[in-house]
Specification:
about 325 residues; alpha/beta; Rossmann fold; nine-stranded mixed β-sheet; about 40% helix; about 20% strand; Pept_HybD-like_dom_sf; metalloendopeptidase activity; protease; Germination protease; zymogen
Length: about 325
């Protein structure tokens, strides 16, 4: 229709495949074709292993065909070091199983790419992980006879962002790939979530590569096997959430509060409480965006959160990539 309202710009944006699946299930009916998922609980850690098998599933949730593993750990907000160590161990186990499913060998030459801006705390996850990663490629190049068994060649780089370097991260990585010829690329980046409770408490692993800035609406050249010619595994943590998401969550919490306090919650909340979550979020975004108030928000204690979760990921990677690293005490191997 000529005057039909186009709401595509107000669609919920999320980098998490798990959230995309949840949104699709709310908007659809029953199980999604082409999408398989299993969820297990393990001492405060929720592990979801999801597979998008075909184009039907990819279109249904708006994510690429591939394998996704998500760790949800709400307790990370409590800065419990014992829990952090346990998460690092579980992450190492899940990542190693992920490598095995993809057929990545024990001696695969691996390049770790820490995407993001080290000057902006919510976007500094990638560079912080690189700082704590055990790099070994130079030993294999310079003194291969002195490398102990149980290690593989690992290199790492934090290429910065376009605004600092003037060069797309993908182009920088392409140059490195051409010269160093890795067998595998691991790209780490900060993500955007639609749920406040998942910010800084969730880790996603995917074999689909990564598109910097996709969760905040930026269209940028990605790091994928199609572009780089090398398998790319993406690791991400949501560190920001839209203001519209927070407003939407507040409306839902208000509705639940009034339902507990009075039998007349309906007249107070009106049609807002009967709208589906996705429709309500679109409405909030439609109101906020024209006046420039749909901000990206991060918790005030993001500095400590980023340090902690970067250490968890780096510890887990060190254990998963090097058999010589004790996976039961991975935290001892970060510096």
């Amino acid at each position: 229709m000529e005057h039909e309202l186009d709401l595509r710009q107000y669609n919920v944006r999320t980098d998490l495949a798990l959230e995309a699946k949840e949104l699709a299930e709310v908007g659809g009916a029953g199980a999604l074709q082409g999408v398989r998922a299993e969820t297990v609980q393990e001492e405060g850690i929720t592990i979801t292993r999801m597979s998008i098998d075909n184009e039907i599933g990819a279109r249904a949730i708006g994510k690429m065909i591939g394998q996704y593993v998500t760790l949800e750990v709400p307790g990370l907000r409590n800065q419990d070091t014992v829990l952090q160590d346990r998460v690092a161990t579980v992450f190492a186990r899940e990542f190693e199983a992920f490598l095995q499913r993809l057929g990545v060998g024990k001696n695969a030459n691996t390049l770790i790419v820490g995407l993001g801006n080290w000057n902006v705390t919510p976007d500094a996850l990638g560079p912080l992980v690189v700082e704590n990663t055990m790099v070994t490629r130079h030993y294999f190049e310079l003194m291969p006879d002195r490398v102990a068994p149980g290690y593989r060649p690992v290199s790492a780089v934090a290429p910065g962002v376009l605004g600092i370097t003037g060069i797309e991260s993908s182009e920088i990585v392409q140059g490195i790939v051409q010269r160093t010829k890795p067998d595998l690329i691991i790209a780490i980046d900060a993500l955007a979530s639609k749920a406040i409770e998942r910010v800084n408490t969730t880790i996603q692993i995917a074999d689909t590569g990564i598109h910097p800035g996709s969760g905040i609406g930026n269209k940028r050249k990605g790091l994928t096997q199609q572009i780089l010619g090398v398998p790319v595994i993406a690791i991400g943590v949501p560190t920001v959430v839209y203001a519209s998401t927070i407003v939407n969550s507040c409306i839902e919490l208000l509705s639940e509060h009034f339902k507990r306090q009075t039998d007349n919650a309906g007249p107070i909340m009106g049609m807002l409480q009967s709208l589906p979550e996705n429709d309500r979020l679109q409405l909030v975004r439609e109101v906020l965006q024209p006046v420039g108030h749909d901000l990206l928000v991060t918790p005030k204690d993001v500095d400590q959160f980023i340090e902690d979760i970067a250490n968890i990921i780096a510890s887990g990677l060190n254990a998963a990539l090097h058999d010589a690293v004790d996976s039961s005490n991975v935290a001892a191997y970060t510096h």
